What does this fold into?
Amino acid sequence: MNIFLLLAGTLSGIAGLLHLGCIYFGGPWYRFFGAGEQMAQLAEQGSLRPTLITLGITSVLAIWSLYAFSAAGVIGRLPFIKTVLVVITSIYLLRGVAGFLLINNPMGRSAEFWIWSSIICLALGLMHLFGLKQQWASL
It folds into this structure.
């Protein structure tokens, strides 16, 4: 069992659950987690847009969690595992780096959002990278 991929899968799953919390608890959670005032207001107005966007993000995080668990040996082997994990790792790392470039042009989000979310994405990307490197031959 690969600890890096196990941790990456667990943290992606937790991130997905936190996104579900935004749907359930609404505007205050969207604000707290930095989704922007527009998303918070839309949620408070009963718009389906924040829910649908958040469900999409949650679904992606759940799939990414499953792929990390599969590569870690926790669940059965999923299709295209090497390719999918390279893509997941790349997205996390690119998102982590890109966020730091958006601090001065936050696009409706705070600088703190970009800093913290970038640190989280970089950490998840590195966990995937280290785990994938260790597991590559057995995948």
